[in-house]
Design brief:
Low-confidence stretches: none
Oligomer: single chain
Mean pLDDT: 89
Order of helices and strands: HHHHHH
Number of strands: 0
C-alpha cells in the first residue's frame, strides 16, 4: 500500500492549532488569531468540511481552555454562537481567495475584520445587551456599542493582518522547503 504524506495538509492543521493556542496565550491583549485562522483555512484547505471544522474546533478548544483554566469566561452567551457563525461566514468568504498574494491576503484580512466587527457588535447589541444591559436599547445605545468597540477593532485589525501573514507565510515556506527536499531526493 502506497502511503503519501500530504505535508501541506499537515502544515495547515498545525498552523491553525498553534494560532488557536496563541489566542489563549495572548488573551489579555485581545490579540486574537480567529480571523486569520478562518481566512487561511477557507483559502488553503480544499476539503470544505475541514476548512470550516478547523477554525471552529480551534475556537471551541480555546474557549474551553479559557473556561477550564479560569482565564476568562469561555462560554458567555447566545451571542457567542453567532460569533461561531460569523467565523464560518468568513471561512466561506475566504473560499474566494483564489490567487494568494500579499495584497490579496491583506485585502481579505481587512475585509474579514470589518465583517467581524460589524456583525459581532450587532449581535452583542441585539442578543446579549438585553441580558447584560451594557447600552441603552435605542439608537444612542446602538451607536455607543460601536463607538466603544473601536479600540478593540484597531487591535483586531492588526492581529488579523499579523496572523494572516504568519499563517500564509509559514505555509508557503514549509511547502517550498518540502518541495525542494522532494526534488533533491
Amino acid at each position: 500500500m502506497n502511503k503519501t504524506i500530504n505535508y501541506g495538509f499537515i502544515t495547515a492543521i498545525l498552523l491553525i492549532l498553534a494560532a488557536a493556542t496563541s489566542r489563549v496565550v495572548m488573551y489579555p491583549h485581545n490579540f486574537s488569531p480567529i480571523i486569520g485562522m478562518a481566512v487561511f483555512s477557507g483559502a488553503v484547505i480544499k476539503d470544505r468540511r475541514l476548512s470550516f471544522a478547523l477554525p471552529i474546533v480551534s475556537m471551541f478548544l480555546s474557549d474551553l481552555m479559557f473556561e477550564v483554566f479560569n482565564i476568562a469566561p469561555g462560554f458567555w452567551g447566545w451571542g457567542q454562537l453567532v460569533g461561531y457563525g460569523i467565523l464560518a461566514l468568513i471561512t466561506v468568504f475566504a473560499f474566494n481567495l483564489k490567487k494568494i498574494s500579499v495584497l490579496n491576503i491583506a485585502g481579505f484580512s481587512i475585509a474579514s475584520s470589518v465583517i467581524f466587527f460589524v456583525l459581532s457588535n450587532l449581535s452583542f447589541f441585539l442578543i446579549d445587551n438585553p441580558v447584560y444591559h451594557t447600552y441603552t436599547q435605542d439608537a444612542s445605545g446602538f451607536v455607543d456599542c460601536y463607538v466603544k468597540a473601536l479600540p478593540f477593532f484597531r487591535t483586531s485589525l492588526v492581529a488579523d493582518l499579523v496572523y494572516s501573514g504568519a499563517l500564509f507565510g509559514a505555509y508557503y515556506l514549509v511547502n517550498n522547503f518540502v518541495a525542494r527536499k522532494q526534488a533533491v531526493a
